[in-house]
Amino acid sequence: DESKLILENKMAAIGELATGMAHEIRNPLGLIRSYSYLIRNAQPQAVTAQPETIASYLTVIDNSIERANTIISNLLNFSRLSGDERDTFNLHALGTELFALGKKTYEIAGIETALDVPETLLLHSNLESMKHILINLLSNAIDAMPDGGTLKLASTTKGRDAFITVSDTGEGISDEHIKSLFLPFFTTKGPNKGTGLGLYIVYNEVQKLGGEISVKTKLGEGTAFTVRLRGVV
Ligand code: ADP
């Protein structure tokens, strides 16, 4: 139906944005590397060692830094695009919908799903943001379980706050990687698979909702990301 289509387009859009950004940021970085190499390795008598030439190389470096900066700013703006209107939605229904969309993937990967969300729970928050957040967390959880496992979406409430947890029984995250998790372009999945923008987008969306995100993980046992949303119940 229509909502499925919107969701699928959204997923494709996230993927495209991510690949595009990663690609674009590599170009200015490559220029910076090449021109700093030329400056550093210039032979004293060569044309490349003359002050004018070096000045022109430095200009290329400056422009490349400017370019990379612009790309990052655009990415920040992307997360402001969806409005901060509040919707009222049923988290159990949303979880059911997302699990249904991924059914094939889960079957192939040998992943069991569990939905531990009260059927009657209504949240007052931005639905588009919530979808961005969940889609990214779920897709990371799947990647973390190449040999299968359990993927769980759970929620609890405390007063008017909601705690939404996506957990997996996958590989876990090392201490070394924990501090970089939410940085844009941080990925351990290799250049063709990971873009390093998923958790960055998640972080931005959570911020936009005025919430917090935390992670609990154990190597070889699994990972749980919990989003706390204030005043949404
Ligand atoms: P990407 O998925 O493109 O790598 P993300 O920003 O979504 O980018 O994630 C960054 C990195 O965080 C991943 O490459 C992975 O190393 C780690 N990560 C994220 N979620 C999980 C998870 N559930 N289990 C293990 N590692 C994870």
From TrEMBL:
<feature type="domain" description="Histidine kinase">
    <location>
        <begin position="20"/>
        <end position="233"/>
    </location>
</feature>
<protein>
    <recommendedName>
        <fullName>histidine kinase</fullName>
    </recommendedName>
</protein>
